[in-house]
Specification:
This protein is of the alpha+beta class. Helix content is 31%, strand content 28%. The protein contains 14 helices and 27 strands. The strands form 6 sheets. Strands 4, 5, 6, 8, 9 and 14 form a 6-stranded antiparallel beta sheet that branches.
Length: 505
């Protein structure tokens, strides 16, 4: 029986949250702050500021304050998405393969200081590192990816059926619109016909031409293509024909999405509902509790077992425990059942928390080789749902799995939390932005049935500063809507996350 898939979008002046659910269970979650610059996927006309032979990279000014870095491998080779098998590589290219004279070139032979380049951000800045850049520019659509300066045609390697690949290859050859741009069929293109792909090509070619014009006219450093905002990205990448509906709690965002869908999928009927009830959308759908659970270290499994997620400086360690589950047969069967449940849940948690980098999973030991083989198969199958690139590097006889997961943006936890001032960085608490947003939501709930009243928000001084400065327009708007007065009071004795709401008058 098909699961009920929905995309739920909640917008506030400070942030946008998007949840993808199946049968009301959270499967994907994304958050984007209004103050965040949309970097990953955006294309910039940059200028090389320095070339460092020792690390084989150049630093490029793209106008964001901190220079991005560009490795030589991201310049000299036509390097499409790692999830792609290019048909041309199999000798099926209709024109001679390009030569690569710089395949082993040094960075100083490829770029020079003050040189202007078109680059695309592939990873956000982390810590002291600037954004990672590439000259292999790509524009994603629903079913296809357009490669701006790589003329090859390709099909996602996740589409492994030979007959389907042959069918798609035939369609691809009919859709080429430029000798300087290539096309790659995404996994979502499985089973789609020439009409759907042609629609995608028309949509992408317009963006491509617009980007080329912007690049020709811009003076470096400048952004020549801005990646879509969060809601549009998720709809583009996660919407499928089995999606029951899209729900958004903002009329303005509702109209933006309708316009976007008409451009992206003309002729396709998509149910988009605007949510207008007084109870917040995520609260009504039971998502607030599920989102809050993403920040817990311990995750309970259906059997009674559990997993513990421990981020460290260099990796994320995940431990699997039987906990309260003792099974009905023997230790091996108990461990096998818990491990299989854990494999599915771990893949889900990686997606939800947007964990990137190295992940080490300590499963419960299994003595039977067939059980270990089945566990690996279960884990690999669960990971295929992830749109981020994952690579299961090894699985040892003591049931320790090592894998890597593509990191492009900050994880959900690093967006919502900051280093804890109470434990000197050994843990974390919610950021002032997050607590301020929650305070405004509490005020909104309180004023739902208390119009013409005065509401006092008693918060930590740092949260009060945020509310009285950056978030003052939101409070003023809420006062106007409810004809009420909102007073922000600070109390140094309060815990950073504590919010007290009092009504008077």
């Amino acid at each position: 029986m098909a699961k009920l898939k929905e995309i739920l979008i909640s917008t506030d002046p400070q942030e946008t949250r998007v949840a993808v659910t199946e049968d009301k269970r959270l499967e994907e979650f994304y958050v984007e702050r209004a103050s965040d610059t949309r970097m990953v996927g955006s294309i910039y006309k940059g200028r090389v500021t320095s070339v460092v032979p020792g690390i084989g990279a150049a630093f490029v000014d793209i106008g964001l304050g901190k220079n991005g870095f560009l490795y030589v491998a991201d310049i000299v080779e036509p390097k499409p998405d790692d999830d792609v098998i290019l048909e041309g590589d199999a000798g099926e290219r209709s024109h001679p393969p390009p030569t690569h004279p710089h395949r082993r070139s040094r960075i100083e032979e490829v770029v020079k200081v003050h040189q202007e380049l078109l680059v695309q951000v592939v990873k956000e800045p982390f810590g002291t590192k600037g954004a990672r850049l590439t000259t292999h520019l790509s524009l994603p659509g629903r079913y296809m990816v357009l490669m701006c300066n790589d003329s090859r045609l390709g099909i996602s390697k996740r589409i492994d059926d030979p007959q389907e690949r042959a069918r798609l290859r035939e369609i691809l050859t009919k859709l080429r619109f430029s000798q300087e741009a290539g096309l790659i069929i995404r996994t979502a293109g499985t089973g789609k016909g020439e009409k759907e792909f042609a629609r995608d090509v028309r949509y992408l070619s317009k963006i491509y031409q617009r980007t080329k014009r912007s690049a020709a006219q811009a003076k470096a450093p400048a952004c020549v293509y801005q990646e879509y905002a969060l809601a549009h990205r998720v709809v583009r990448d996660s919407f499928t024909e089995d999606t029951h509906r899209i729900v958004v709690d903002s009329k303005a965002e509702f109209h933006h999405l309708r316009h976007f869908l008409q451009a992206l999928m003309p002729g396709l009927k998509v149910r988009v509902d605007v949510y207008q009830a007084e109870q917040p959308l995520f609260e009504r759908e039971g998502l607030d509790e599920q989102i809050a659970a993403l920040f817990d270290k311990r995750v309970q499994l259906p059997s009674g077992g559990s997993i513990v997620v421990e981020p460290t400086e260099g990796m994320v360690a995940i431990d699997v425990n039987t906990a309260k589950f003792t099974g009905r047969r023997n230790l091996e069967e108990t461990a096998f059942q818990v491990d299989k449940e854990a494999a599915v849940e771990i893949a889900r948690q990686l997606r939800l928390r947007d964990i990137g980098g190295i992940v080490v999973i300590d499963f419960i030991d299994l003595d039977i080789p067939a059980h270990r083989k089945e566990l690996v198969r279960t884990l690999e199958e669960a990971l295929t749902r992830d749109r981020a690139k994952t690579n299961l590097v090894s699985f040892s006889e003591i049931c320790v799995a090592e894998l890597t997961r593509q990191r492009m943006r900050r994880s959900v936890e690093t967006v919502s939390y900051q280093p804890c001032p109470y434990c000197h960085g050994r843990g974390s608490v919610k950021s002032a932005v997050t607590v301020a947003i929650e305070a405004i939501r509490q005020a909104k709930r309180t004023l739902k049935d208390a119009h013409h009243k005065t509401v006092e928000l008693l918060v930590h001084p740092q949260v009060a500063v945020r509310l009285l400065q950056e978030d003052r327009p939101s409070l003023t708007a809420l006062e106007g809507q409810t004809r009420s007065k909102i007073l922000v009071l600070s109390d140094p004795s309060l815990h950073f996350e504590e919010i007290k709401v009092q009504v008077s008058g």
